[in-house]
Amino acid sequence: MTQRVRLGVNIDHVATVRNARGGASPDPVRAAREALAAGADGITAHLREDRRHISDADIDHLSAVLREQERPLNLEMAVTQEMLAIALHHRPHAVCLVPEKREERTTEGGLDVVGGHNWITPFVGRLNDAGARVSLFIGADPAQIEAAKRTGAAVVELHTGAYCDAVRDERPEDAAAELAALTAGAAHAHALGLEVHAGHGIDYETVAAVAAIPQIMELNIGHFLIGEAIFVGLGPAIGRMRDLMDQARGLEAAA
């Protein structure tokens, strides 16, 4: 039987809109509730060191609400002692370790697990001991995938940004090469016993090809869905993405 791909909805940019003016609206927790009602399987939130969108209070509230609803929170965070302490306090279902630069607009590229293996591995161990499912956000490079396996992480999330950019920029040869790399990377990670997720830059045009990769079990999508929600509403935006993911797996009847 073909397996349905899970959809994690990243609600960071609801907080970005809120923070642009201050106050309490729009509320990321309300967005999380509506996303789950619309078909999301879980909620992703990135607590950055500079707190440019999601805040500590948001994590407090999201953790309580999702625990109450028995739905998973995927906490994206940098590999720092501050973030480790926050994760150990909240004990989310999943933690995705990502690279982070203060000057970047969004996460650029994947985590260098090869170069950072000696300091990433203890973080993974502490999080594993706390019961979190640890994911490493990496490029689809065999060396990075193999290094991720050696850290003890259960999951890798493959960075899809280069593929999505090539599609949007109408560079078909580059898009084909990037998709081939994602496909090979997913197969390699799966063969090593890692669960495979993917995310970054995915929209309606690019989701089908990524969701069709058989080893990918979860997509995490945020910015596009929050932007689309301005025009059609969050529920319809998520519903269409969910339908496209299901269709990519030949699950039209289940949509």
From TrEMBL:
Belongs to the PNP synthase family. The lineage of its organism: Bacteria, Pseudomonadati, Pseudomonadota, Alphaproteobacteria, Caulobacterales. 1-deoxy-D-xylulose 5-phosphate binds at residues 12-13, 48, 53, 106. It is found in: Cytoplasm. Transmembrane segments: none annotated. One of its GO terms (cellular component) is cytosol. The record marks 157 as: Transition state stabilizer. This is Pyridoxine 5'-phosphate synthase. Catalyzes the complicated ring closure reaction between the two acyclic compounds 1-deoxy-D-xylulose-5-phosphate (DXP) and 3-amino-2-oxopropyl phosphate (1-amino-acetone-3-phosphate or AAP) to form pyridoxine 5'-phosphate (PNP) and inorganic phosphate. InterPro entries: Aldolase_TIM, PyrdxlP_synth_PdxJ, Pyridoxine-5'_phos_synth. It is an enzyme of class 2 (transferase). Keywords: Cytoplasm, Pyridoxine biosynthesis, Transferase.
